[in-house]
Amino acid sequence: MTTKSPQDALTGKVAVITGASSGIGLAVANELAGRGVRLVLGARSSDRLSTVADTIKGEVLAVRTDVTIARDVSRLFHEAAERFGQIDIVVANAGIYVGGDVASGAPEDFDSLIDTNVKGVMRTVHAALGYMMPRSSGDIIITSSVSGHQAISWEPVYSASKHALQAFAHGLRRQLVTSGIRVGAIAPGVVLNDLWAISDPGAINAGVAAATGLRSEDVADGIVFMLTRPPHVNIRDLVILPTNQEI
User: Fold this and answer.
1) What's the Cα-to-Cα distance from 157 to each of 36, 93, 161, 215, 218, rounded to whole Å?
2) Is-catalytic flag, 158?
3) Which of 49, 158, 172, 219 is an active site residue?
């Protein structure tokens, strides 16, 4: 009996990716497209999303999506199912960053972060389950952070949002045991991309050379690893750090 290689295991599957117009989401989209995955990309910026969709080879559907709006998330999955007839993979990746001291911060910024990073992921997963559970199969990957594993003093609100995602991912996985649906969270350290306001290739290369930062593509590699494990293997948590990051 022949078995599929990890490369072939993803061919023909349908993946929905939120936060897909830049950073980790874009890197995951490019990596999966290269493995024959059909893509449904969601992001808030129509212009950036359209540009990304035009540059990715393969079957791509772009749907403008703000994960803080429930009807946007519902439309994303409805259009995915209408176009491709199934949903095999969801990468709940949309997120924003708020750092700094709580005392000098703006509560409205805290609200926005929680609505995007926590409630946005919950909305995305809830919508996905409506399509995955009837088929008894699927992979849900949640983009967390090393700050979801330990509180970081210069970003306590962001850390709180990622701790919430860790609890959500772990509880969800247990609810779905025997369902055929796998749930995992990937937790990167410093990733040199737009979230950290780093887009200059020279700065990214320097951080990588110093082993103080990751490329978005490194995280995408980790997600592909999670997705290509045999069906009896569920990578619940994958923490991926630059070699010289202390935390």
Assistant:
1) 38, 18, 6, 24, 25
2) yes
3) 158
